[in-house]
Amino acid sequence: MSSAIQPRIALVAFSSLGDGLIYLMMAENLRRNGFSVTYFGNIGYQLRNWLPQFEIRPYPTIEEMDSALADYHLVIMSPPQFLRDCMDEAMTEAMRRKWLLICQKTPDNWRFDLGELKRTSLPPEIYTRLKPLLDAGGSMRRREYTTESVVDITLEYLRDAMGLQDLIRNVPLTPPPHLVFRRHSRRIIISPDSAWPEKKDWPPNAFLKLCQKLEKQGQQPKLVVAPANHEHWRNMPGNRYETPMFLDIGELAAYIYESAAVIANDSGNGHLASFLGLPVVTIYRKKNPNFHWRPDWAPATVVCPRLTLPGLHGEIWKPFVFVDDVLKAREALS
Prior knowledge:
Layout: E1 8-12, H1 17-32, E2 36-40, H2 42-46, E3 55-57, H3 65-69, E4 74-77, H4 81-84, H5 89-96, E5 100-103, H6 115-121, H7 124-130, E6 138-139, H8 150-160, E7 187-191, H9 197-200, H10 204-216, E8 220-223, H11 227-234, H12 249-257, E9 261-265, H13 268-276, E10 280-283, E11 300-303, H14 323-333
Parallel strand pairs: 1-2, 1-4, 2-3, 4-5, 5-6, 7-8, 7-9, 9-10, 10-11
């Protein structure tokens, strides 16, 4: 399609690592279907050199948001956390009347049909191209799901709600030229933290025991945690394993890309590894190996507790995920 009649879409991603990658997949599929896409989000911006096929920008500030998005024919937005923190009823009403607000699950008042506004404000050829998208706001989950992953759900939304026909699951990447995919065939990244440690994290001693067993098998376990947790893990008693620190998602992506596999809690690093094509083992707190937010761009498996027990502060699960189960899951993905 000629760029002269390509509708210009701004896609503003939610702030988390997993969501940021989902919206990179969305941006690529919008691009493939004839739209000129600019992705806004700090996760994608740190990976911009891997994705030269569309423009990627960091978030504007709240004060700059309207002016930064003003020149686009359509804004599709999963409001980042700094916006959600301000979204009272009046602000939500104003946002949904100018931007297509989306998320996996949204409040009912996010949805608004932008068809009439765009019909009267856009050139006819642009409006015609955008028309199938204009009532696609609100929740991406438009039916009950069972075993489908968030990747599956998003692709179905793009097809059924937005009417996109040319869809792909794996986003074409352009890694820096000095990198070699899975160059370090024995390097296993262990990702023992998450955004909700009390809820999602397998115990540190279990991860260290896993590292010991991997080392005995001839593997090279490396502990990779968020910068805020690095000092804690580097100085943890019993941690004699290399614990590199990455201040930028692009640097982390390069390290993951050359590794053999990732073993992680339910966290963003597992999604990033899967997005890059690596096998991933996810340790999950519930007895549901098909939970929706599992990594699902590359071969992956989920290790669940053998049982859970009721507790005062939620289900007790951590003692019932066994190191040997995690090892077997990793070996099955080799």
